[in-house]
Amino acid sequence: MTDANSWVVEANDPANGFPLANLPLGVFLRGHDRHIGIAIGNSILDLRACVDLGYFDALPRSLRDACWQPTLNALMAQGNGSARALREAATGILSEDSLQRDTRLLVAQADTRMVLPVDIGDYTDFYASIDHATHVGRIFRPDQPLLPNYKYVPIGYHGRASSIVVSGTPIRRPSGQIKVPEATAPIVAPTRALDYELEGGFLIGKGSTHSEPIPIDRAEDHIFGFCLVNDWSARDIQSWEYQPLGPFLSKSFATTLSPWIVTLDALAPFRVPSLPRPEGDPAPLPYLADEAVRTHGAFDIRMEVYLHSLQMQRDGQLPARLSRSSLRHLYWTPSQMLAHHTSNGCPMRTGDLLATGTVSGPEDSSRGCLLEITERGAKPLTLPNGETRSFLMDGDEVILRAWCEKPGHPRISLGECRGTILSALS
User: Fold this and answer.
1) What is the distance between the alpha carbons of residues 361 and 256, in angstroms, rounded to a whole number?
2) Where are the beta strands (DSSP E) in 154-301?
């Protein structure tokens, strides 16, 4: 939106990630109340305070009322035009050219706690990374890594919205049915193959009508913004339960969401063409084909995974980076995922979450989960302190980070998505 500076000085630090050009939305606690806020530098602009002190008087009443709500849903439902008007008003308040530098509007991020920004009614997880699908397919089906439908249809499954938690929430190791190859029957036990999944997520703003598909050229009218997602997975439970209907209890125990939602306006400079299809791949079917989506419907959102073991924490060591990828590697774009999701008439509701599935790239260093990195545990990785991991251990903290950057534009951060593993209940 702008490369101007802010009177919130730390927002102008190129390494900060929350400059005036970003202004992501989230929900934080102020006392016992939930307030909608906008990240700026190391601070949060309190939108309720902006309304109460008259800074938003020029905005429509419906938009001012939405700024007073405990979640983003009412704001998101008004569509991207309202979000754009709000960003413009916030930019006017926070710009270094502002005549009033009112510190009453700010809260230090370090002095508050973020909560889930959205009341999520439904959650769908896709399988949109062809590199991830190929790597995993090679592990389980060496002769046919990709099934015939993959290059025609965006694959997804319906997740469990009730188990979505905000970044920083501890993750309890789940128990479930596990059957090892040499056993004749499964046992019920804590998972021994707990994994993370590096994913992007996008949230639905304006909903859609039942039985009326969203055309691909209008899909972005319904996408409010992007966040980070960690779809925790119990691989041993998953391998026993997933046939014939797919993941169930192996994934429904927890999914972690980053607290800041970055709008399409903030991400506009970082649009890129969709992933080129190799010669011989089928062209997208007409309802998934659009020239604008092909030329700039993907986003170069760079993503990293870090692991901070309990021993590393005790020894004062920094987290170790396990991989780095980008959302530009997806075979299916967000618009294609949404158009496909609604192609049968499935309605979207404000606050619905759609995740990309594990985001892996073509290099070994860009694999987005331990299942890929360790090849189902057969090749454990070694951490800088000498510890090894096939899958996650109790006390491990997994940290996902994402950002966009390019010459001539300030760095845009999506923040962090953190979770620490707790031992299973006895």
Assistant:
1) 22
2) 156-158, 164-166, 171-172, 175-178, 187-190, 194-195, 198-204, 223-230, 233-234, 255-257, 262-263, 271-272, 298-299
Here the tokens at position 164 are 């979505």
Burial of 136 (0-12, 13-18, 19+ CB in 10 A): buried
Q: By C-alpha distance, which of 298, 266, 305, 297 is closest to 413? A: 266
- Does the reported pTM lie above 0.90? yes
Residue 58 and residue 90 in contact, taking contact as beta carbons nearer than 8 Å: no
C-alpha closest to that of 200 among 145, 135, 128: 128
Ranges of CATH 3.90.850.10 domains, the chain: 123-422
CATH dotted code for 123-422: 3.90.850.10
Q: Which one is catalytic: 132, 222, 308, 340? A: 132
- Residue ranges, CATH 2.30.30.230, the chain: 9-115
pLDDT in tens, the chain (426 residues): 456 899 999 999 999 999 999 999 999 999 999 999 999 999 999 999 999 999 999 999 999 999 999 999 999 999 999 999 999 999 999 999 998 899 999 999 999 999 999 999 999 999 999 999 999 999 999 999 999 999 999 999 999 999 999 999 999 999 999 999 999 999 999 999 999 999 999 999 999 999 999 999 999 999 999 999 999 999 999 999 998 999 999 999 999 999 999 999 999 999 999 999 999 999 999 999 999 999 999 999 999 999 999 999 999 999 999 999 999 999 999 999 999 999 999 999 999 999 999 999 999 999 999 999 999 999 999 999 999 999 999 999 999 999 999 999 999 999 999 999 999 998
Give the Cα separation of 416 and 258 in Å (integer).
6
Confirm whether 132 is a catalytic residue. Answer: yes
CATH architecture for segment(s) 9-115? Roll (2.30)
